[in-house]
Amino acid sequence: MTLEQTDKPHPSDGGRRSDMSAVDHAALMEAVRRLERNSLALRLANLVGRQVSFATQLVPARAAQVVGKAAGAAMRVALRAAFASLNGAPVRDRVGFHRAMVAASGAAGGALGLASLPVELPVSTALMLRAIADIARAEGEDLSQPETALACLQVFALDGRGAEAELSESSYFALRGLMARSVTEAARFVASRGLIDETAPALVRFTTQVASRFGVVVSQKFLAQATPVLGALGGAAVNLAFIEHFQSLAKGHFTVRRLERKYGEALVKAEYARIAAARDPDEIVTPAA
């Protein structure tokens, strides 16, 4: 199928002109599902067998302080890792390896509790970053570019919602818009200096912005792991849900970016919004083959 074939209005689509192929439109619909209709809070509520809103539970003050510091440290570790050794490796499927490693770190966290978080979270975050980078590379991203490395880190900020988030509300492009300036400034700084100075204002602003949203999700993870009788096995299951969630967000994020490179940001954003606003995405008409 050629793009010319898809330029004709689809008869059941109200005469709307579509410049996106059927395959790419289906990929965009899947990206919307991953980015708008999925949250870690919902995954964890199902995992621990309780339909609760993790966002409305109060994290003890001491735990909140530990979570905040751990999230900040995790982002600093991830920032260094993002620019250190992600370029040059061949594209290969290492999803299983990354999930196994993160599950193992979660088992330790579940057994040791809050005390292990300052060590366990940076380790699991660095492992997740490698998994995210593999997904980015598979979607055609150039990992030698600072902006791509920052886009990998940005994935950790894409779910700051609780279990009761309004599922019809498009939040992905809103979050990207909020972070656009800090991403641009950080990428420009790294490109001009050719090195990472995590104390530089541009990078501090970016990592702080990501860490603040990542901390919300980490709090949900902590609450799930703190559930009585979960222990080490439960900690591993929670961390497995943790990495699967961010891998899913990464797949959606880098699918959107791939389509933006192919069709332009305006077209992709408009069609994304149309899909996200639909009550049932399955009812959206895909361009004819």
UniProtKB/TrEMBL annotation:
InterPro entries associated with the record: EcsC
Pfam family, one: EcsC
Comp. bias (Basic and acidic residues): 1-19
Ranges where the record places region Disordered: 1-21
PANTHER family: PROTEIN ECSC
Protein known as: EcsC protein family protein
Species per Swiss-Prot/TrEMBL record: Rhodoblastus acidophilus (Rhodopseudomonas acidophila)
